[in-house]
Structure formats: structure tokens, C-alpha cells
């Protein structure tokens, strides 16, 4: 299972049931060489009765890895993560158990799963005290259908409104993660404070269709989904069209400026854990953090980060996979030659042809994924510098997925240089990427923390929006 480490680390990009149904959170333990590794499969049922799955390996600090395919035929489940050469096949008992096998490359292991759904205290419960409506709408050319929930205060007025833009990975409208309903909790708080909210299923989640492009989409593609949602809000008689805003979480924090740069009807944006320094630098930071969390020594982690920093910029200059392979082979070969045995041992690698080819293959697979290639090459400063509406940028000081200091500093510098006169940058002590009160901020804590979102963070976002929608 050691070969899984580097692949999983690289995939850890800012990355997040029901009547009796196989949809839900399923957990099991994989016995690999005498070590029990906890694995979690999050199976989601879509509006068209198809399924999508994300894969977590909490012991390896890997969360929200998207399965390329999920098949549910009667009581049989099959889910695959192509880039890691993983296939899980299981037989559901119709209740709370799945008996199955986990295969990676040629290794086949038993992996039985138990349902492990979680309930959190901040999850809103009826009566809500405000108006709520499940809505559906299409894009202009009718190639995409969206499912969403609209909430607003009770009454007959026109209300300022926001769209919540989700982070990376296929997420439902509530931002469901380890039983937390992150975006629902935020929407509930804002609506109780006089702000209408539209929260939308991502493509391929809930009642939103995946569209004709399938998985060949990028953050830019998603920005046009947000425009469709913005058009929907403007069609409603109960929305104040002069006060429409966007709240972008994580990846959503680079999507919001894309939309605001194009649309002058966006009157404010909130950037929550936004990766403003760019995806390549974010990925390198995350890789180093994940390796250290696995017990890899600092020198070995730094060595891998240096390699990553050399390779990822080639995604922008290489026009084909073959060209990328040609460009990175000498870099990886030279890197392997120059590392000490202790460094390579720390990374479970060796200076040989097999490891060189394996590393080239990992990066090549990433290159062929349009979303990742865009994320690694896109410069968020381009669109953020065009944003002239008010901006609130907020990060938790203990965010290990999107470093608060470097990204907030970048946002401040970009907005200052571009002449934006109304922005606020705030780093909140003790909070993580989800804005939960945390001890370390590590992703593994998300599941352990009962709080879905800090009341302090909720209040800061709400107060700032109200100030800018008077």
C-alpha cells in the first residue's frame, strides 16, 4: 500500500441519506500488511437516480477524492478511482452493511463497510422561522439542469440575496461533509438575519445534471453555472436586484471573482478560504502538510515539495501529455539521483526506473484531468484584480488546506494594487478551513468536531453583508 501514498497526497487538492438506500457514509478498515487503514466511501444519489462517490482515507489525511465511476445495480456497488488504480466492489445487505473487496493494481483485499452517518447539533431543524423553497431551473441553452434551495425571511418584501459557491469536489447544496451541513448552516444563519440565500447542487449531485461535458469541466465552467443561478435570482420578485452577492468557499473563492469580474450586477463577494496564490502553490503546501502528518520527516517532505514546484509549472507550457512526459522525465530522473537514501526511504521511493516511471505516470494522469490542469495553471490575480465591488476575505488561522497568511496577504496585495476601495481581510484565530473551532486545523479533525461553523465566523459574514446591503 506504500505506492498509494504519493498518489493520494497529490490528489489532496482543496478538497468535500435517506430512506433505505445505499446512499450514505460507509466506513471500513483495510488490513494492509498488519496495519488497519480506515477508509470511507461517501455515496450520493443524484436526481436522475444515478450515484456519485467520494473516497476518504482519514489515516492518510486524504479526503474528498472523487471516484471516476459509481455503479449501483440492485444490491451491488462498484466504485473506481482511476488515477490511484483503485476499484471497490461490494454487496449491500439492504440495511447497514456492505461486504466487499478493495483492489489496487494487482493487490486484492477484503474490505467490509458499515453505515456511519453522522448528525450534528447545528444542522437546522423545522420550524425554520423563514420561507424555504426547493427550486429547479436550466441554463439558457437547456443543456444543464440545476436543483437548489432558496430561503428568505417571511414577508412580502424584496431581500438582498447571496449564492453560496461550493468548494472543490462534487458537493450537494448543503455542503454535506462528515454529517456537517456546512452551507445549510450558513444559509440558515444569514436568512434569519434578513438575507436571502440560494444554495445549489453541483453538477452531478442532487438534482443537478452532469451536463454534456461530463467530467471535462473546470472552475471556469462552474463560473457559468453561477451566472445561471444569478440569472435565476434576478427572475424572482422577492429578490432585491441591487444587492446580489456571492459567497465562495475554497475553490468557490476563485470562482466568485471570475463572475464578479464579468458581471456588474454582483454588488459584493465573500471569499472564504480562497486559494488566491494559485493551485500549484496550494497543492505543494498541501502535499507537504499531508506528508508531515503521515510522519514523513521535514527534509523528505521539503524534497518532494521542491519536485512538485518544478513539475507543476510545466502543466502550463506543455500542450500535450506526450510533451509533458518528455519535459518531466529528466526533472524527475535528476531529482531521484540527487536525493539521499534517507530522503527516498522517507517517501517510500527508490532511485530506479520503476519509481521514475511511476512518478511520471502520476503527473501525466493529473495533466489529463481538465479540472486539475486548470487549477494548477490558472492565476486568480487576473480576475480578482478586475473586481471593483466590496470584498470580504476570511480565513481560519488554523486552515491547513488554504494557508491563511499567504492567501490573505495575496488578496490584500491584489486588491490594493488594483485600486479596490472597499475590502476587508480577516484572519480568525483557532478556526480551520470550514471555520470550525479547531485544535490543530488538520482535516482529520473535521469529523471529530461537533460544531459545524463558528458563531463568530457566522456573525462576521452576516454583519459585513448587512452593512453592504443597506
Task: Write the SSE topology.
Elements: H1 4-11, E1 24-32, E2 35-45, E3 51-57, E4 62-66, E5 69-73, E6 76-81, E7 86-92, E8 97-104, E9 107-110, E10 113-115, E11 131-138, E12 145-152, E13 159-165, E14 176-177, E15 180-181, H2 182-192, E16 196-200, H3 219-234, E17 239-249, H4 252-262, E18 268-272, H5 279-293, H6 298-311, H7 314-317, H8 321-338, H9 341-346, H10 353-367, H11 370-377, H12 381-384, E19 391-396, H13 404-418, E20 423-428, H14 445-448, H15 455-467
Parallel strand pairs: 13-16, 13-17, 17-18, 18-19, 19-20
Antiparallel strand pairs: 1-2, 1-10, 2-3, 3-4, 5-6, 6-7, 7-8, 8-9, 8-10, 11-12, 12-16, 14-15
Signal peptide: 1-19
Keywords: Signal
Organism: Mucilaginibacter mallensis
Description:
This protein has 470 residues and is of the alpha+beta class. It has 3 domains: 4-115, Lipocalin, CATH 2.40.128; 131-278 and 378-467, Rossmann fold (3-Layer(aba) Sandwich); 279-376, no CATH class. It is 34% helix and 27% strand. The strands form 3 sheets. Strands 1, 2, 3, 4, 5, 6, 7, 8, 9 and 10 form a 10-stranded antiparallel β-sheet that branches. The chain has an 8-stranded mixed β-sheet with strand order 11-12-16-13-17-18-19-20, with helices on both faces. The chain has a two-stranded antiparallel sheet with strand order 14-15. Helix 3 (219-234) crosses helix 4. The longest helix is centred in the C-terminal third of the chain and has 18 residues, at 321-338. It starts with a helix and ends with a helix. Residues 1-5 have low confidence and may be disordered. Residues 1-19 form the signal peptide.
